[in-house]
Amino acid sequence: MQDFRTQDIQIAAVLLHTNCRFLGLDRKTDPKRVAFMFEDSEKLQRVIREYWRDDLLCKAQSLLADFKRAKHILFDFQDQR
To answer: What pTM does this model have?
Structure first.
């Protein structure tokens, strides 16, 4: 299984929002930065393309809730160090 990693919390929130499979966080690759890890798939690649083309349609409140969820995941991980 391949994974997709991003340090961009906005992209992570979009991937969480679109139900891409979240695998966890990685600090080992770069000890100063955390990467969100997702299972790479055709759906994930399509969502990222739509995001960068500004073609992604979603409910604003739901997306903002998932942005908050991404921040909680990140900060909970930092508290566990």
So the answer is: 0.85
